[in-house]
Amino acid sequence: MKTMKELTVKASVDNLEEVFDFVNEELERHNCEADLRNRIDIAVEEIFVNIANYAYEPEGGNVKICISSGDGGEISIRFEDSGVPYDPLEQTPLPDLDKPLMEREIGGLGVYMVRQFMDKVEYARADDKNVLVMRKKIKTAHSEQ
Which of 59, 94, 109, 114 has the smallest CB count inside 10 Å? Predict the structure, then answer.
């Protein structure tokens, strides 16, 4: 059985805490382990802050966040905005982690972490909207007993 919840907020970093509360309420409902929840939070923060900072300049707009879960233990988090077309997965080069920190290009590390922390990340432009979906199989405190 699949459950889905959604939240629509103004694309502003001021609303990040509300977004965390929304996502974590669902993760906690599924007894998601704290370490995994923290990794998902980092991915959520990266995507939401990117939308807040770049999607709507200068006028502002909303972000719709949907979180769904199925019987298989997979959580899906969908971000949808009507901002300028932008695919962070295609346009962000992977960081060169072999270079010393001070020699690396600015940018790209956040999206790299999203890709590392989530099982699947997909972007599409649909109906004049940016749609980014992240999926993660979650281990629950009860599933290992």
Answer: 59
- Superfamily (CATH H level) for 3-137: Histidine kinase-like ATPase, C-terminal domain (3.30.565.10)
Closest CA to 90 of 72, 68, 115: 115
- Asked whether 39 and 117 are in contact (CB, 8 A), the reply is yes
CB proximity list for 20: less than 8 A, separation 6 or greater: 41, 44, 45
Residues 73-82: tens digit of each pLDDT = 899 999 999 9
Q: Identify the bridge partners of residue 102 per DSSP, sorted by sequence position.
A: none
Question: Could you read off the pLDDT of 85-129 as tens digits, one per residue?
Answer: 988 877 555 656 565 655 645 555 678 788 889 999 999 999 999
- Does residue 140 carry a pLDDT above 70? no
